[in-house]
Write a structure and sequence with these properties.
Blueprint: H1 2-61, H2 80-93, E1 96-111, E2 114-132, E3 135-141, H3 142-145, E4 150-155, E5 158-168, E6 173-179, E7 201-206, E8 214-225, E9 237-240, E10 252-254, E11 260-267, E12 278-282, H4 283-296, E13 302-303, E14 306-310, H5 313-319, E15 323-328, H6 333-337, E16 344-348, E17 351-352, H7 356-364, E18 371-378, E19 381-388, E20 390-391
Antiparallel strand pairs: 1-2, 1-4, 2-3, 3-6, 4-5, 5-6, 7-8, 7-10, 8-9, 9-12, 10-11, 11-12, 13-20, 14-15, 15-16, 16-17, 16-18, 18-19
Length: about 400
């Protein structure tokens, strides 16, 4: 019994030890798990702590890196074209004015006994053509001041009432006169437009929409443009890609020295917008018109005294460029010089005759009394004649 009891006791102790061992193994397994979890968490926490303590404060609190934009207050290189354009704008802008033309008319509103006077204002540009003491003469387009009841000129926020000296509808030019008192204006420099060539850079300056001294740059596309203008006037236009906007009319077209080579007058557009085809009256023609208007109040025209017709395409193929003399006015410069019917006018002062508009405009450049050299083709031979021009009656 005793032995049996001891054995039972031993057995019980063994069971207890086994349980304790199992518990110990269980605790040991949990300890490793806790250790591994703690290790991983510690590593992550350490990395985060290192990031927060080491990197983040530097990224968030340090001064931002300085980026070098290579910014300079002055150009560190020579750019001749820009300097030339800037100088041209500076020089020519001193002689550009804004013109306001007011037009009054009676408006019938469609109701009996209900009508009234209305007034409209039109903006344009002009250029100071000549200055004599306190009197300044302003050259502009005729269509800028046409039918105006009152005209004012603005130069650098100085306003003056203008008087109309004279107009020339055939070239769409006009001359105004203002008395500036003690205020002095500077006359523009006028260049000979004959020196222009296609490809030359030009600048159009004016006061479009009231913005003073607005400049646009372009090139000369062509000279002597007249084929699209058949209104009976004198068509000898400089075609330019410099934008001519509403309000630019009457302003100067200048070369890179700031000298006036033309007077901006119109654009070619099918929808009213600017498409880069603008036209200016050459300064050579404008100067002749301006001088006559100032001196005589009208433009003195010259004439050859001939009636002409253009050659047909077949005749041009056979004879080349020129125009045919169809009639000669008795007692005219042409008759006095020996020009004959059926002569073909080939050249005027060495320039090839393009068409009847070209010839009409070319002769308009001359003054009464000037002598021109005419080259004609007569019976297959070219001969030269000198014609002394007279004033057109």
């Amino acid at each position: 019994m005793i032995n049996e009891t001891r054995e039972n006791n031993l057995t019980s102790d063994a069971v207890v030890e086994q349980k304790q061992e199992n518990v110990q193994h269980h605790r040991t397994g949990n300890g490793w798990s806790v250790f591994l979890v703690t290790l991983v968490v510690g590593l992550i926490a350490g990395a985060v702590l290192e990031f927060k303590v080491g990197l983040l404060p530097e990224a968030l609190t340090a001064e931002p890196p300085v980026v070098d934009y290579a910014e300079t207050k002055t150009l560190d290189y020579e750019e001749p074209l820009s300097k030339m354009i800037a100088k041209a704008v500076e020089v020519s802008s001193k002689s550009v004015v804004s013109i306001t033309a007011k037009t009054s008319y009676n408006k019938n509103f469609g109701y009996p006994f209900f009508s009234g006077n209305r007034e409209e204002s039109h903006l344009g540009s002009g250029v100071v053509y000549a200055v004599s003491k306190s009197i300044a003469y302003i050259l502009t387009n005729n269509h800028v001041i046409n039918n105006a009841s009152a005209i004012s000129v603005n130069h650098d926020d100085q306003f003056f009432k203008a008087k109309l000296v004279g107009v020339d509808q055939a070239t769409d030019l006009a001359i105004l006169k203002i008395d500036t008192g003690s205020y002095r204006m500077q006359a523009a420099q006028i260049a000979d437009s004959d020196m222009l060539k296609p490809g030359y850079i030009v600048v159009a300056i004016g006061q479009p929409y009231g913005f003073q001294n607005t400049a646009t740059m372009g090139i000369v596309s062509a000279l002597g443009r007249g084929e699209i203008f058949r209104s009976g006037g004198y068509a000898d236009f400089i075609q330019t890609s410099a934008q001519i906007n509403p309000g630019n009319s009457g302003g100067p077209l200048v070369d890179l020295m700031g000298r006036v080579v033309g007077i901006n007058t119109s654009i070619y557009s099918q929808n009213g917008g600017n498409v880069g085809i603008g036209f200016a009256i050459p300064s050579k023609l404008a100067r002749k018109v301006a001088d006559d208007l100032i001196q005589f109040g009208y433009v003195r025209r010259t004439e050859l005294g001939v009636k002409i017709r253009e050659l047909s395409p077949a005749e041009k193929m056979q004879l080349g460029k020129g125009i045919l003399v169809g009639e000669i006015v008795p007692g005219s410069p042409a008759e006095n010089a020996g020009l004959k019917i059926n002569d073909i006018l080939r050249k005027v002062d060495g320039e090839v005759v393009e068409n009847d508009v070209w010839l009409k405009t070319k002769i308009a450049h001359y003054q009464p009394g000037d002598t021109v050299k005419i080259t004609v083709l007569r019976k297959g031979k070219e001969i030269e004649l000198k014609i002394v021009l007279v004033e057109k009656k």
